[in-house]
């Protein structure tokens, strides 16, 4: 379960201290009333790698109701995650609706995304993935 709004806010703004590989954060948590918020911005890493983040959050239900996470190196789009359902693709059923777009044919080439959730923060997984796969392969 997601923490409450204030705890999630502390978590987001402490990410650069918790993960020294983050060189800069432009993440902003924008409350929309007492129970809803939007998280938007970027995390910048070495090697010109950027993680773009958008989350729609419901703190009454303690869930992420929507998200988009994209990773680029310079101008090259490396991959992105989204929860758009694709029930017609059986290979994605194991993590439905979470999936990752990867090359080749990045728009149409999708693979399961077992590390993502609507009920837990996704940023730790995404940061570790960048560290393990892109920065320290």
Structural overview:
- The chain has 137 residues and is of the alpha+beta class.
- It has one domain (5-135).
- Helix content is 19%, strand content 36%.
- It contains three helices and eight strands, in the order ααββββββββα.
- The chain has helices at 5-13, 15-18, 123-135, and strands spanning 24-25, 28-31, 36-44, 49-58, 63-73, 76-82, 99-101, 110-112.
- Strand 2 (28-31) and strand 3 (36-44) form a beta hairpin.
- The protein is globular and about 40 Å long.
- The N and C termini lie far apart (31 Å).
Supply Rg. Answer: 15 Å
**What is the typical, i.e. mean, pLDDT?**
97
Q: How much helicity do the residues have? A: 10-25%
Give the overall form. globular
Strand content: 35-45%
Distance between the termini: 31 Å
Classify the secondary structure makeup into a structural class: alpha+beta
Order of helices and strands: HHEEEEEEEEH
Largest sheet: 8 strands, antiparallel
If helices are DSSP runs of H or I spanning 4 or more residues, what is the number of helices? 3
Query: Uncertain spans, ≥5 residues at pLDDT below 50?
Result: none
